[in-house]
Amino acid sequence: MRVRSAGRGGAPGARGPGMADTALFEFLLTEMVAELWARDRDPDPGPRGQKTSLSALEGMGFRVGQALGERLPRELPAFREELDALKFLCKDLWAALFQKQMDSLRTNHQGTYVLQDNSFPLLVRMASGVQYVDEAPKFLAFPCGLLRGALSTLGIRSLVTASVTTLPACKFQVVIQKS
Amino acid sequence: MRVRSAGRGGAPGARGPGMADTALFEFLLTEMVAELWARDRDPDPGPRGQKTSLSALEGMGFRVGQALGERLPRELPAFREELDALKFLCKDLWAALFQKQMDSLRTNHQGTYVLQDNSFPLLVRMASGVQYVDEAPKFLAFPCGLLRGALSTLGIRSLVTASVTTLPACKFQVVIQKS
User: Fold this and answer.
1) Which of A21, B21, B22, B109 is the most exposed place for a label (fewest CB within 10 A)?
2) How confident is the model at residue A43, as a pLDDT?
3) Which Pfam families would you find in this protein's record (chains A, B) (predicted)?
4) Which chain B residue has the Cα nearest residue A29?
């Protein structure tokens, strides 16, 4: 017995009704965070610790951000200014990843940018109790790396950190590294 | 300075041109596999080994498959037969994840199904050299779990294994567990 084969771009709705890809990405990232944390809780976790898990997640985010960034410039107008690149992250990159845009972008015009998301999807699930603020950093390391990686592909070196005051809102601070 | 805020469903093209979500999923999964393997290469990897990484990836796939499965039945007609569920995996689930469908589905009508993908996206990158066939299992553990998890949500208990003979083709064997 064979299922009728259909190539790419087959029947309408073939992408699967209701299976938003953003959900897939979030499920996968949540599992990844859980797995790395479980390994850190091992009785004998080896020479790596929790700090290394954060740094591993940041590194994974960086490489995914780079890879995504490499797919973009061919199809987009060049970024004439640093600010254009940051706006691109806030609008297009965020929308592609999380189906929403950043809520605000502020800059001191000296190479520091603050990107605020009032309802960051990876934190929304955690927002039921303020006691979980301590858990937030492990969900923010990957997106920090992602922003840094995408900027890197656009030719901009940066440091990216995140902070949470009230769940599920968070701020990403991007400090451009002048070479 | 503020970027004009735009809610969900904002400007046309806001999802990010060319950033197929399938790429995001593949990048993330590739990074996850690499990170788990790097940990297993640690001089002191702790009590977990490579076999445990395969089983961890299968488990992550299972939970993601369950979570995806839970989003589906409300929007889809009920699956009257086991075969309907398998067809659904081959068409809709695969299309949602990999932008393509399985190339064939065969069954012995006794609870065993063989799902063949002639060009499985996670293996395409590896297809340049037959020497990498040994590397294939680590990219197949997650999708095996995913199939098992999605079936589980549809009320079907199964064992799912994968095999590769010629990259980038692979077969997933699903054996239904009658309770």
Assistant:
1) B109
2) 58
3) TRAPP (PF04051)
4) B28
Q: Give CA torsion, residues A159, A160, A162, A168, to 10 deg.
A: 170
Q: Is B3 left (phi over 0), alpha (psi -120 to 50) or beta?
A: beta
Angle at Cα B144 formed by Cα B142 and Cα B149, nearest 5°?
A: 90
Count CB neighbours of A89 within 10 A: 23
| Helix residue ranges, H only, chain B | 21-40, 50-71, 82-88, 94-98, 121-124, 136-153
The residue behind tokens 């098992």 is B148
Q: What is the DSSP letter of B10?
A: -
B88 contacts B105 by C-beta, under 8 angstroms = no
Q: Give exposure, B113-142, as e/b (b: 16+ Cβ within 10 Å).
A: bebbbeebbbbeebeeeeeeeeebbbbbbb
Find residue A146's DSSP bridge partners: none
Cβ-contact B10, A85 below 8 angstroms: no
The angle, 0 to 180 degrees and rounded to 10, between the axes of the packed helices A136-153 and A50-71 is: 40
- pLDDT bracket for residue A92 (50, 70, 90): confident
Which one-letter amino acid corresponds to residue B21? D
SS3 for B125? coil
B5 and A95 Cβ atoms separated by less than 8 Å: no
The reply to whether residue B5 touches residue A60, judged by beta carbons under 8 angstroms, is no
Q: Helices A21-40 and A50-71, interaxial angle, to 10°?
A: 150
Chain A residues near residue B39 by CB distance under 8 angstroms: 39, 46, 48
> At which residue do the structure tokens 């790596």 appear?
A48
Among A11-15, A172-176, B95-99, B171-175, where is mean pLDDT lowest? A11-15
